[in-house]
UniProtKB/TrEMBL annotation:
Protein name per Swiss-Prot or TrEMBL: Phosphoenolpyruvate carboxykinase [GTP]
Gene: pckG
The species this protein was found in: Agromyces protaetiae
Compartments where found: Cytoplasm
UniProt pathway: Carbohydrate biosynthesis; gluconeogenesis
EC number annotated for this UniProt entry: 4.1.1.32
Catalytic residues in the record: 285
Annotated Phosphoenolpyruvate carboxykinase GTP-utilising N-terminal domain residues: 30-253
Pfam families: PEPCK_GTP, PEPCK_N
Top-level taxon: Bacteria
Protein purpose: Catalyzes the conversion of oxaloacetate (OAA) to phosphoenolpyruvate (PEP), the rate-limiting step in the metabolic pathway that produces glucose from lactate and other precursors derived from the citric acid cycle.
Domain Phosphoenolpyruvate carboxykinase C-terminal P-loop intervals: 257-612
Length: 618
């Protein structure tokens, strides 16, 4: 075998004529070194073409690794079922291998990079025996864009190749950019299930190869990612969380930009004025629903730019410009339905890979929340017969859909703008039953960074007037920041100094506040557009606000609630700032900051002290 071997089985051999791959000596040498380590049967230099994807799909269907769905209902769509032990990110096996442990910080799993490299060389030795190694060139963001970055993923999973073809700008042009001298990030993946053992004996293939032992390893100093043992999404699609957040956050710190776990939307007012908003929400806090919001107030439109990740860099005019570095959506299926997110449902009409959802008898898919009533009979995500009386979910709670962003009927015309879009506002939000009002504006950039650093959700329902146990998720980046979280806050403070008067305004939102009876006070979903309307009014200087110790809240009558069945008491509860509860939360924040020691930026400690002072005075 040589690195010019390029077939995908006998049927495909005629389709791949030289030249293929790249002439770049560094890339070819890297691939050769990895081939010597992992020992695949053959190497394929992927080109991202439709023909290539069709061949891989046919191969996966023939091997039982993908189920072809009924083309009448879901054209060109497929179902994958994973191993039950490989269904989600493995945070306890995710490592940040910075040179110094303190650079990883207390919220990351740190390992000495020298020790980890020795360990990885051992587990990757022969890991691709009997398999094909695929070389996947990809761009995060528009090809050649000023905010975009390049990468190459080595993988032995056709599922990963197909998914990367949807989630990134993958193809031959990336090789050309690398040959022209553009930098690129090295990413290596193996499912860890060789088909030939150390003494040459073959073993049977399985529908979803993986390994009980898993490693998701980031080397931020050398911009490398190594992933072993898992074929699932964020563990295996290394362009996503591993590159786009963990590695990119370090690149952004070093180069003066931001890599964030944020959605991006474009809001257009009845007057035709357009604004771009980025928003960070932890899981289960309404992120995808906001990304695909359908406003309930007349004349307003919301268009989707991205649902998960935003890269933001200062432009020549001093403003902050953002791209969605991804080309697709890798969304959670359960809970996505006509009543909750009709835009997402409409996006999935075809050309979609579904993972761990249920299969209907007519060859379509189903999951909890897609429809109000479940079908009478299904094949569940593990391939077992299922009825509504089975007593278990038909789709895995973390089942997914992978689909091109361009298919979204609500996609903005500038979603893949080469230069990115200018950001007017940044939102932070958690899932809080108490304390946090529906919306509050930060008084300054530093105050906004404090809001982002203290995002939290309540693990359990809290009694009225008390603070529940909080799950901290600063900037919604807790599992995804590639370096010390306190240093990350410091980088945000520094970005405020760089942007100066051009800095976007910052807001905190909370759709989930509850009344004494445990019911939600705010209707949410499309009515969240009313909050966006007030935010736009603040940007334009037309919406009134009143100052509270926690920030600027809508003045009485400034928030449009016409047509909503909200009593004066309910509105008061939505914006109530209970000083005793907030003082208790200050103590919790003080304790939270303590774990980061003296690395917490002085600006954030000053914001905490100011908040406490104004609460005590009030």
């Amino acid at each position: 075998m040589t690195i010019s071997d390029i077939t995908i089985g006998t049927e495909a051999s005629a389709a791949y004529a030289e030249p293929r791959g790249t002439t770049d000596p560094a890339l070819r040498a890297w691939v050769a070194d990895l081939a010597a380590l992992t020992k695949p049967d053959e190497i394929v230099w992927c080109d991202g073409s439709r023909h290539e994807a069709d061949l891989l799909t046919k191969q996966a269907v023939a091997e039982g690794k993908l189920v072809k769905l009924n083309p009448e209902w879901r054209p060109n769509s497929y179902l994958a079922r994973t191993d039950p032990g490989d269904v989600a990110r493995v945070e306890d096996r995710t490592f940040i291998c910075s040179t110094y442990e303190e650079d990883a910080g207390p919220t990351n799993n740190w390992r000495d990079p020298r020790d980890m490299r020795r360990e990885l060389l051992d587990v990757f030795d022969g890991s691709m025996k009997g398999r094909t190694m695929y070389v996947v060139p990809f761009s995060m963001g528009p090809l050649g864009g000023p905010i975009s970055q390049l990468g190459v993923e080595i993988t032995d999973s056709p599922y990963v190749v197909l998914s990367m073809g949807i989630m990134t700008r993958m193809g031959e042009q990336v090789y050309r950019l690398i040959e022209a001298g553009e930098p690129w990030v090295k990413t290596v993946h193996s499912v860890g299930y060789p088909l030939v053992d150390g003494v040459g004996r073959r073993r049977a293939e399985v529908e979803w190869p993986c390994n009980d032992e898993k490693y998701i390893v980031q080397f931020p100093d050398s911009r490398e990612i190594w992933s072993f043992g898992s074929g699932y999404g964020g563990n295996a699609l290394l362009a996503k969380k591993c590159f786009a957040l963990r590695i990119a956050s370090v690149m952004a710190r070093d180069e003066g930009w931001l890599a964030e776990h944020m959605l991006l939307i474009k809001i257009t007012s009845p007057a035709g004025k357009a604004y771009h908003v980025a928003a960070a929400f932890p899981s289960a806090c309404g992120k995808t629903n906001l990304a695909m919001l359908q406003p309930t107030i007349p004349g307003w439109t919301v268009e989707t730019i991205g649902d998960d990740i935003a890269w933001m860099r200062p432009g020549d005019d001093g403003r902050l410009y953002a791209i969605n570095p991804e080309a697709g959506f890798f969304g959670v299926a359960p809970g996505t339905g006509e009543s909750t997110n009709p835009t997402a449902v409409a996006t999935l009409w075809g050309n979609t890979i579904f993972t761990n959802v249920a299969l209907r008898s007519d060859g379509d898919v189903w999951w909890e929340g897609l429809t109000d009533e479940a079908p009478a009979e299904l094949i569940d995500w593990e391939g077992r017969e299922w009825t509504p009386d089975s007593g278990r979910p038909a789709a895995h709670p973390n089942s997914r859909f992978t689909v091109a962003a361009a298919q979204c009927p609500q996609i903005s015309g500038d979603w893949d703008a080469h230069e990115g879009v200018p950001i007017d506002a940044i939102l932070f939000g958690g899932r809080r039953a108490t304390n946090v009002p529906l919306v509050a504006q930060a008084r300054s950039w530093k105050h906004g960074v404090f809001m982002g650093a203290t995002i939290s959700s309540e693990k359990t329902a809290a009694a009225e007037g008390t603070v529940g146990e909080l799950r901290r998720d600063p900037f919604a980046m807790l599992p995804f920041c590639g370096y010390n979280m306190a240093d990350y806050w410091g980088h945000w403070v520094k970005m405020g100094r760089i942007l100066g008067e051009h800095a976007p305004q910052i807001f905190q939102v909370n759709w989930f506040r509850k009344g004494a009876d445990g019911s939600f006070l705010w209707p949410g979903f499309g009515d969240n557009s009313r909050v966006l309307e007030w935010i736009v009014g603040r940007i334009e200087g037309t919406a009134a606000a009143v100052e509270e110790p926690i920030g600027l809240l809508p003045a009485p009558g400034a928030l449009d609630i016409d047509g909503l069945d909200l009593s004066d008491e309910t509105v008061a509860q939505l914006f109530d700032v209970d000083r005793d509860s907030w003082l208790a939360e200050c103590d919790l924040t003080d304790a939270y900051f303590a774990q980061f020691g003296d690395r917490v930026p002085a600006a954030l400690r000053a914001e905490l002290a100011s908040l406490r002072y104004h609460l005590e005075r009030g």
